[in-house]
Amino acid sequence: MSTDMKRVLVAGATGYLGGFVAREFKSRGYFVRAMARSPKKLDPIRDSLDEVFQAEITRPETLDGACDGMDIVFSSVGITKQKGNLTFKDVDYQGNKNLLETAQRAGVGKFIYVSVFRGPGLLHLDIVKAHEDFASALRHSGLSHTVIRPTGFFSDLGEYMKMAKRGRVYLFGDGNNRINPIHGADLAEVCVDAVEGDSKEIDVGGPEVLTHREIARLALRAAGNPERITSVPVWMICGLVSLSRIFNRHQGELLAFMTEAMTGDGAAPQVGARLLADYFRELAAEAPES
């Protein structure tokens, strides 16, 4: 291995974006160490990894040595599905803060973190507040850093295809709000470019600005089904959010975040070349889950 090869720790490599980021770093000649709680989940990208470090980001004692010898730390760590009693604050904030402190002790040169587009204006949502609280800690850490705020991943829109395969897509509100979601591979290029850049914050979206109604049509077309789209009134969704928060705070917050995403405009600077229609066609061709 060349002595001048840059070394990066990728935290979140088992997730949608993290896998693309690990591959992108490797393709550019970086030494890639992936951190995972369950190393077996790294098997799909094993050929893009030089090392695997087993650790649990919410348990700081397991992070000892994770950042040793690393020049850069990249993190897209966060939770969607609830894991035990862990909250967004436990993982998205405190877990990443544990990693940041480990990186500081190891003398890491730069920390790249993925937050949420329009995050500073969405602090009333638990999931966003956890991201932005960590982004604030990163800004005040004294460590060179970049916070990347994507509009949303293509993978986030997989629910449209699930509905489309069943023959009908439900929208929150009229579906006329716009978004330009981004493919993981396109976003990975932005993340790796940020290592050499000097931007502290980057807002980014994909090449196409679409309404949610247009996204629903793309999904139904890819599924080979006629256009059946139903708009659910926002007041009804807001009531469901309030009820969900009572019985399951985590699920209620996820629903609140989805509602915000589908009823507010979310178009960011456009990058990349990969199109949502192609992604939907790939999903449509996949064998149904058993």
Report a brief summary of the structure.
The protein is an alpha/beta fold. The protein contains nine helices and eleven strands.
Write the layout of secondary structure elements.
Layout: E1 7-11, H1 16-27, E2 31-36, E3 51-54, E4 72-75, H2 88-106, E5 110-114, H3 126-139, E6 144-150, H4 158-166, E7 169-172, E8 178-179, H5 184-196, E9 201-204, E10 210-211, H6 212-223, E11 229-232, H7 234-247, H8 249-263, H9 276-285
Parallel strand pairs: 1-2, 1-4, 2-3, 4-5, 5-6, 6-9, 7-11
Antiparallel strand pairs: 8-10
Mean pLDDT: 91
CATH class of the domain at 7-152 and 183-204: Alpha Beta
* Fraction in helix: 40-55%
How would you name the CATH homologous superfamily of the domain at 7-152 and 183-204? NAD(P)-binding Rossmann-like Domain
Distance between the termini: 44 Å
Output the radius of gyration: 19 Å
How is the main sheet built? 7 strands, parallel
Q: What is the β-strand count?
A: 11
Class based on secondary structure composition and strand pairing: alpha/beta
Strand content: 15-25%
Strand order of the largest sheet: 3-2-1-4-5-6-9
Structure annotation, total helices = 9
At CATH level 3, the topology of the domain at 7-152 and 183-204 is Rossmann fold
Which residues form runs of ≥5 with pLDDT under 50?
none
What overall form do the CA principal axes indicate? Answer: globular
Order of helices and strands: EHEEEHEHEHEEHEEHEHHH
Q: What is the CATH architecture term of the domain at 7-152 and 183-204? A: 3-Layer(aba) Sandwich
